Amino acid sequence: MIDVRVALFDVFGTVVDWRSGIASAARSWFAAHAPDRVDLDPFDFADRWRARYQPSMQPIRQGTRGFTALDVLHRESLVDLLTELGIDVDGAAVDALNAAWHALPPWPDSVAGLTAIRGLVPVAPLSNGNVSLLLDMARNAGLPWDTILGAQVVRAYKPTPESYLRTADLLDLEPERCLMVAAHNDDLAAAQACGLRTAFVRRPLEHGPGGADPGPTGDWDVVVRDLVELGAVLARTGAQTRRS
């Protein structure tokens, strides 16, 4: 790990708690805009909305749809879900709920962990979120990014190779000088295949107390329980900001 010069982070689930954030926003939104449906489980609603996340990006990955920002994909998925639930609201109400992705809460260790890591190497999201979403989220949650990177910047959605390789190229770094940090094995596997170093962060509550916790399934460079521990590991192994 001594040659790592930047730490790149998956965001949804790794840095922020999307499920609790969306459920909280949905609970308030139903009370205001669909009071006859307040019986709906907000966590189930969050899960069903999130379940449309990967399928919504697949046509773009396959080249059958031009690049489209995640905010747009999230909104399309939300309209589809509301229609499925028989909820008819105006566009402004839909926009208000869609904006919940911009204000997701960080995990308890995220801000302190990112701050510690940032003292060693630059930190940036390598997320499928669009720039305005990630910027708003950072300001709301206090995430200390050095810059905002991700799918909209490189015009490619993870886990396509372009998303990782174009990011490394933007930073003028060889892939092996970049550390991909994620709570998702598929993200790390794709990054590793492109030559990036990998760090698995355990997030057993991403899908709720009863959700699946697969744990690390690959040969990752680092496995940690949270981002504070990752900062300590990087400090011990000599990660540095000096660029060759």
From TrEMBL:
InterPro entries: 2-HAD (IPR006328), HAD-like_sf (IPR036412), HAD-SF_hydro_IA (IPR006439), HAD_sf (IPR023214), PGP-like_dom2 (IPR023198), S-2-haloacid_dehalogenase (IPR051540). The keyword Hydrolase applies. Signal peptide: none annotated. It holds the Pfam family Hydrolase. Keywords: Hydrolase. Belongs to the HAD-like hydrolase superfamily. S-2-haloalkanoic acid dehalogenase family. NCBIfam families: HAD-SF-IA-v2, HAD_type_II. This is Haloacid dehalogenase type II.
